[in-house]
Design brief:
The chain is of the alpha/beta class and about 325 residues long. It folds into two domains: about 1-115 and about 295-330, Nucleotidyltransferase, domain 5, CATH 3.30.420; about 125-290, ATPase, nucleotide binding domain (Nucleotidyltransferase, domain 5). The chain has helices at about 35, 45-65, 85-100, 110-120, 160-170, 180-185, 210-225, 230-255, 275-280, 300-315; strands at about 1-5, 10-20, 25-30, 75-80, 105-110, 130-135, 140-145, 150-155, 260-265, 285-290, 320, 325.
Length: about 325
């Protein structure tokens, strides 16, 4: 089954062609990081306008790279949410127009399901599994009994982990996106600053990073008022140690309670090298899989992978374009 997939939920414009959920025939990702860097974060209106500029071109490039004609495709899949409404609508409209023009079925795919199935492109997923989904907008632990079965065990009560990284980076005067920079500097420093471990002593699977972020901000501001210099690598190491202590502790707790065969770590923060180093050492009893760095951040290949399994399980449900009539509507966007 050959699927053309589209991802535009935030600031990456991406189109991919994926065969049977595994074989990536082409994969185009255009990032807008350079555009948004000056603002210290993604500006939704600017993001959606830039999707419009590039979307048609990357459709053509994906087909060209894969040596595929539209008549070779079986399905068009597109991210339906969650994400920035304007950005999502650009991808949905482009995918709908392409599917209609070529008489292809259209499937809406949940962005978070895509992140989880990114790990399945290069690994075999084994069930029951525990998915740790960590990104700029999400921090979730999800139990999966089988393909396309998702039970939410815990989520962030305030800031997502990636958002906390970016805000701490900004407080320390580091550039955007802050997560990779904090991760890199953490390896150069030591865990010397006393920071809280939020929710570490509570036997539940929810997360909270707002208090930790505020603790870093207060430490930095108090030091500035006293004329003291913050050791930035040490602060990064201390912040990351706190985050990873909590994430790994709760992941281990859930993996043992639910007796899972595999832990799937996905989302943009899955690229964090500190996490990759520690989680294998601290949860040695479970098989742990990560997407490659290419598939950690937002991309269309993960949407194509998830769409394959979604189709295998559910077939032609709503959110398909069949016979020229689409049920993928604005109401679906942002779910």
């Amino acid at each position: 089954m050959i699927i053309l997939s589209v991802e535009s939920s935030c600031d990456e414009s991406s189109v991919a062609i994926v065969k049977d959920g595994k074989e990536v025939l082409s994969h185009i990702v255009l990032s807008q990081i350079d555009i948004h860097q000056v603002f210290g974060g993604v500006v939704p209106e600017i993001a959606s306008r830039n999707h419009v500029v590039h979307m048609t071109r990357i459709f053509e490039e994906a087909l060209h790279q894969a040596h595929i004609k539209p008549s070779d495709l079986d399905l068009v899949a597109v991210t339906k949410g969650p994400g920035l409404i304007g950005s999502l609508l650009v991808g949905i409209n482009a995918a709908t127009a392409f599917a209609y023009a070529h008489g292809l079925p259209l499937m809406g795919v949940n962005h978070l399901h895509g992140h989880i199935y990114a790990a399945g492109i290069e690994h075999e997923m084994k069930f029951p599994a525990l998915a740790l989904l960590i990104s700029g907008g999400h921090t979730e632990l999800i139990y999966m009994k089988e393909h396309m079965s998702f039970e939410l065990l815990g989520t962030t009560q305030d800031d997502a982990v990636g958002e906390a990284y970016d805000k701490v980076a900004r407080t320390l005067g580091l550039s955007y996106p802050g997560g990779p920079i904090v991760d890199k500097l953490a390896f150069e420093g030591q865990d010397t600053y006393r920071l809280p471990r939020p929710y570490l002593d509570r036997k539940e699977y929810h997360f909270s990073f707002s208090g930790l972020k505020s603790a870093v901000i207060n430490l930095v501001h108090n030091a500035e008022q006293r004329g003291e210099v913050i050791d930035i690598p040490n602060m990064c190491a201390s912040f990351q140690a706190s985050v990873l202590d909590v994430i790994i502790d709760k992941t281990k707790l859930a993996a043992e309670h639910y007796q899972v065969k595999q832990i799937i770590v996905a989302g943009g923060v899955a690229a964090n090298k500190g996490l990759r180093k520690r989680i294998f050492n601290e949860i040695p009893s479970k098989e742990i899989i990560f997407p490659s760095m290419t598939y950690c951040t937002d991309n269309a290949a993960m949407i194509g992978a998830a769409a394959y399994y979604q189709y295998q399980k559910f077939g032609a449900l709503p959110n398909y374009l069949l016979g020229g009539e689409s049920t993928l509507s604005v109401e679906d966007v942002g779910e």
